Amino acid sequence: MPYYLGVDVGTTGVKALLVDEEGRVVSSATSEYPLYTPRVGWTEQNPEDWWRATKEAIKILLKTARIKGEDVEGVGLTGQMHGLVTLDREFNVIRPAILWNDQRTGEEAEYMNSKLGIEMLVSITGNIAHTGFTAPKLLWVRRHEPENFSRIYKFVLPKDYVGFRFTGDIVTDVNDASGTSLFNVRERQWAEEIIDALDLPFDIMPDVLESPEVRGEISAAAAEETGLRKGTSVVAGAGDQGAAGVGAGAIEEGVLSVNIGTSGVVFAGISEFRYDSLGRLHAFCHAVPGAWHLMGVMLSAGGSLRWFRDNLGHLEKVAASLTGVGAYDLLCKEAERVPPGAEGLLFLPYLAGERTPHADPHARGVFFGLSLKHGKGHMVRAVLEGVCYGLRDSLELMKSLGVEFREVRVLGGGARSLLWRQILADVFGLNVYTMEVDEGSSFGAAILASVGVGAYSSVGDAVYRIVRTRDAVKFNETNHRVYEKYYRLYRELYPLLRNAYKKLSEIV
Fold first, then answer.
1. Contacts of residue 495, Cβ cutoff 8 Å, sequence gap at least 6
2. Mutual angle of helices 106-116 and 134-144, in 10-degree steps
3. How far apart are the first and last CA of the chain?
4. How confident is the model at residue 158 (pLDDT cuts 50, 70, 90)?
5. Strand 25-32 to 13-20 pairing
6. What ranges make up the beta strands (E) of 291-341?
7. What does pTM read for this prediction?
8. Which among 240, 237, 184, 250 has a CA at the least distance from the CA of 210?
9. Active-site residue numbers?
């Protein structure tokens, strides 16, 4: 039986996932690596750590699954987006990789937005220039480390460094390239006008493929180090969210994927390039050839509930240690006793600032409407509802661009809570489903590998045949009408507080 391997080069570790031709998960393994913070706001990693962890995870996975390396027909790559890996002419790493969550490039991002203009940037790249994106990192290295910049022969993104170690080829894919601020998302090629305007050398850009295209084959050296067969096809793959969209089956208009992890991601496949003129949504090339996707990101989704548990859920944590029932489950049981709307209590989930739709690092969390009537259950429910209101902001932006939806597919830790799924369904006014395989990016990467080696005729064919939903939660029309009133009020609160947030940041 053929098997397909998905390799996810994440921020904390590499996850390797093995699936069979029916899409069933056979085995998975994870190997971690350190994150370096040489200064406040800086985050870096050593690309060699990614390769070490990849080799380790694959060896563990093959041993656990009792599968021979020659049984793996294809490898798909995914991972953290936007990171900058610089290579010299001998393909040695010049400096540690600068990651997606590094904040050193504020001036460079502001320079790009002002020099090029929001209208030009968004119309070509689908996005404004964010501090996390790759182009501001290149500008930072040129400004602060000119000797290192002069040595750059090629730059690659994190997963593509691992791809290079597999195959020896310097390649990226259209989805990951979309997060560089240097890519023409409409035309699916490097944006020469932006590269020229920034005075960056065009020849440092890697070649670009569609996500299921084969980027190369496992080299003899990589086969020796990983246990995989020499000559095994490796496909270009996709960034973590693009691959997760494939794994959730969010590849066409009508299906909305919502990932409630520490952050929250609202993801929609679209058949033609569309973008929000203010750059409040991300618009990227999809991992599906000839398609695109829209994406909204909130910074504290599941992170908001974790904050509440860690700071205000001490009794539940003690009870969990005694009963074996999780602290999150105990908190949600308290929230279940509270009616929709938490009897007038709203929560703004901006604990770490916000990205979509406000792009405001100064925004902070707020309980609004707190009264003597409210207890812990009200506060927990308000947190769950506030996250769903924040996620709906992205939904509304997508709908304003003419995208229509028939269902929501929810992934991540938040998907485990039936109450949270019901609230999401009621706030959105759409039925919500969980996934039979909720392995996110690594599952999508494995699907892309199966397409690349010809097991399926297209990404759509593979998704139709192996991606399955379960546990439907239908939205309650009565609750939806209640939430419509609260959501309108929620939308009014941020504009009222925006200036106060900035003043607070100046005081603090």
1. none
2. 110
3. 60
4. very high
5. antiparallel
6. 292-298
7. 0.94
8. 237
9. 240
Cα torsion angle, 309, 313, 316, 321, sign: positive
- Tell me if 50 sits within 8 A of 63, measured CB to CB: no
Is residue 284 classed as helix, strand or coil in its secondary structure? strand
Q: Cα–chain-centroid distance for residue 72? A: 26
Say how far apart CA 350 and CA 263 lie, in whole Å.
11
Measured CA to CA, the distance from residue 427 to residue 354 in angstroms comes to 20
Token pair listed for 393:
């902001």
DSSP summary character for residue 444: H
Distance CA 501, CA 364 (A): 7
Tokens 């870096």, located at residue: 44
Query: What integer pLDDT is reported at residue 359 of this predicted model?
Result: 85
C-alpha–C-alpha distance, residues 244 and 78, integer Å: 9
pLDDT tens-place string over residues 396-422: 999 999 999 999 999 999 999 999 999
Helices (H) and strands (E) in the chain, counts: 18, 23
* pLDDT, tens only, 62-100: 999 999 999 999 999 999 999 999 999 999 999 999 999
Q: What average pLDDT does the segment 461-477 reach?
A: 96
Alpha carbons 461 and 463: distance in angstroms, whole number: 6
Position 449 pLDDT exceeds 90? yes
Helices marked H in 2-105 — which ranges?
47-65
**Type of residue at 221:** A
Per-residue pLDDT, averaged over 456-484, amounts to 97
Distances (CA, A) of 30 to 4, 59, 153, 416: 16, 10, 32, 21
User: Which residue reads 């909305």 in tokens?
Assistant: 256
Give me the chain's average pLDDT, please: 96
At 368 the three-state DSSP class reads strand
List, in sequence order, every residue forming a beta bridge with 274; answer none if it has no partner. Answer: none
Q: Is the pLDDT assigned to residue 442 strictly greater than 90?
A: yes
Strand (E) or helix (H) holding 234: strand 233-235
CA distance 289 to 462: 13
Alpha helices by DSSP H, listed for 354-458, are 376-400, 418-428, 441-452
Q: Residue 446: which of 82, 7, 11 has the closest Cα?
A: 7
**Phi-psi group of 50: left, alpha or beta (phi > 0 → left; psi -120 to 50 → alpha; rest → beta):** alpha
Q: State the pairing for strand pair 183-184/189-190.
A: antiparallel
What secondary structure letter does DSSP report for 279? S
Pairing of strands 85-87, 214-217: unpaired
- What residues have CB less than 8 Å from 148, skipping those under 6 apart? 86, 94, 95, 141
Nearest residue to 181 via CA among 119, 261, 122, 255? 122
Among 133, 23, 16, 149, smallest CA distance to 79 is for 16
